[in-house]
Amino acid sequence: MSREARSEPAAEARPNSASVPSSPSPAAAARVVLDATGIQRALMRVAHEILERDVLPEKLVLIAVAQGGIPVAELLAERLREIAEIEVPLGTLDVTLYRDDVIASGRRPIPSPTRIPVSVTGRSVVLVEDVVFTGRTVRAAMDAVIDFGRPAEIRVATLVDRGHRELPIRVDFVGKNIPTARNQTVLLQRNSAGQLEVVVQ
Amino acid sequence: MRHLLGIEGLSREEILRLLDTAEAMLEISQREVKRVPTLRGKTIVNLFLEPSTRTRVSFEIAAKRLSADAINLQASGSSLSKKETLADMASNLEAMNVDLLVVRDRTAGVPKMLADRVRIPVVNAGDGAHEHPTQALLDALTLRQSFGSLEGRVVAIVGDIAHSRVARSDLLVFSALGAEVRVAGPPTMIPPGIEALGVKPYFSLEDALAGADAVVVLRIQQERLEGALFPGEREYAQNWSLTRRTLALAKPEAAVLHPGPINRGVEIASEVADAEPSRILDQVTNGVAVRMAVLYQLTGSEQ
């Protein structure tokens, strides 16, 4: 789901479809490393961490990196609403056209629409990812955000940090660190009961 | 898809892929910085051997919004005026490592001839009376925005069907997307046997418009007509002009399209061209997005 979560570059985008695959891929045996309760708990902590920083809550904007970041950002916005009773604007950013591998790969994923409901200029932007891996998607997302204006700051929140950075990218808010081998795949998906879970395969 | 030479030969899936991509491209033109880095370092040559403003500018803007370097060539002032053949010119451009060639020519088949000759992708920007695929795609995108889907919609194409590359590409793309296509015009402008393409000919504007969901009004192209296919502009306007009165025969809120440039008072009345159901300026906006989609899908592509 997250393009970074895959070992191959530029995974196919699925516009207009549910942002999360509904069943586990039958390939290698998948191990659940974070279930729905674990995800909620991790994001509750991330929400607290975001609010503990001395940032004006009304300056916050969450920008989900499509597709995987979308359900994570929605849950995060719910937690922020619960904890601080604030309605944080929520945008969606597709980074396909900013990727460094899309032309070289010869494949051309269909970008999904990007929607950012407020001006980012002067705001505290929190980019929301499901899985951070090489850091290349985060790099692309930062470039994209800057094309929408000049934010006061850009931070990165992710549900899972699986390591193996290829760029000097630091994640500010991590739900869970999951050590992985480079050739493994980390997926945020919905299980047969429709619940979000993170699996490693 | 390696080249885009026409709508003919494209599968429904390939058409939808281009339209879906174009939809994502639309938003880029509304940003503060109207440019994405996707085609950085790529060179696109727009070879326009027939006069064109809208299409040439649209392709140039599309290339630049994707960060490609766009170079425009015209027949006058180029080595073609020194009698260099077009094929030699294309080979020379390829030798300069150009990544994609956009070609407009007054002769049908020129983009295909060049595509056979060079190894880089070729995009047809209109060739004679043959095809104008990016115009058809932007028309389809515009109608899809109006209706969600073209499935089962009735689209009337009115004008010089026989000499119009827009009509040909349009009817192919609308049919591929499941629309019922009517073509209408004076008998001299309807090619015999057009039913074979799955469309229905009409020889009266009123009949063609009855119950239509959309009307594509074609430009009467005096410059492309050699003999007189119709007695004159005024007589054509009397029988075939889309006016408020004739448009009222179509469904309420029927979409009105025109590929431009419009001849006001000839094929379309100003009261229709400038009023609400007209999507003429949306077509121009969509044109940039469709061309961005085509350049993105084809430039440097291995398939």
Task: Characterise the protein shown here.
The complex is a heterodimer of chains A (201) and B (303). By secondary structure, chain A is α/β, with parallel strands linked by helices. Chain A has one domain (31-200): Rossmann fold (3-Layer(aba) Sandwich), CATH 3.40.50.2020. Chain A is built from 3 helices and 8 strands, in the order E-H-E-H-E-E-H-E-E-E-E. In chain A, the strands form 2 sheets. Chain A has a 5-stranded parallel β-sheet, with helices on both faces. In chain A, strands 1-8-7 form a 3-stranded antiparallel β-sheet. The relative contact order of chain A is 0.24. By secondary structure, chain B is an alpha/beta fold. Chain B folds into 2 domains: 12-131 and 284-298, Rossmann fold (3-Layer(aba) Sandwich); 133-280, 3-Layer(aba) Sandwich (Rossmann fold), CATH 3.40.50. Chain B contains 11 helices and 9 strands. Chain B has a 5-stranded parallel β-sheet. In chain B, strands 2-1-3-4 form a 4-stranded parallel β-sheet, with helices on both faces. In chain B, helix 1 (12-26) packs across helix 5 (133-147) and helix 1 (12-26) crosses helix 11. The longest helix of chain B is centred in the C-terminal third of the chain and has 19 residues, at 280-298. Chain B is globular. At the A-B interface, helix 3 of A face helix 1 of B.
**Cα gyration radius of chain A (Å):** 16 Å
Strand order of the largest sheet of chain A: 3-2-4-5-6
Number of strands of chain B: 9
CATH architecture of chain A: 3-Layer(aba) Sandwich
Number of helices of chain B: 11
What fraction of the residues of chain B are assigned to beta strands by DSSP? 5-15%
Q: How much helical structure, as a percent, in the residues of chain A?
A: 10-25%
Shape annotation of chain A = globular
